[in-house]
Amino acid sequence: xxxxxxxxxxxxxxxxxxxxxxxxxxxxxxxxxxxxxxxxxxxxxxxxxxxxxxxxxxxxxxxxxxxxxxxxxxxxxxxxxxxxxxxxxxxxxxxxxxxxxxxxxxxxxxxxxxxxxxxxxxxxxxxxxxxxxx
Length: 134
Fold this sequence. Notes:
By secondary structure, the chain is α+β, with helices and mostly antiparallel strands. Helix content is 34%, strand content 23%. A hairpin with a 6-residue loop joins strand 2 and strand 3. The protein is globular.
């Protein structure tokens, strides 16, 4: 089930990130990140209500949008969940911010899914860099 209204709890996000071998974050950092996001999408398991996938977007509300924390629970459905999240995220961006440039910060396990959706690694030689604040 796709959820875009109710914010997931930091503990649920950290549990999913941990299962995906991604870094976890303090609840205060999650609160700030979610507050500064323009929207988020969560996939919840129908039977249990557990968080199975997540992505959030930030934007300058003009030319650029960024997708963050793109993850889906490991297992046989992981690629399908990721593809669904990316498809829904792109649909949301097309409706709310048509024509914007989209970048993604996501784990290497999502590369095949992102390429299948038309993302290009380092277009025109543009390379992104990150710096982790402590």
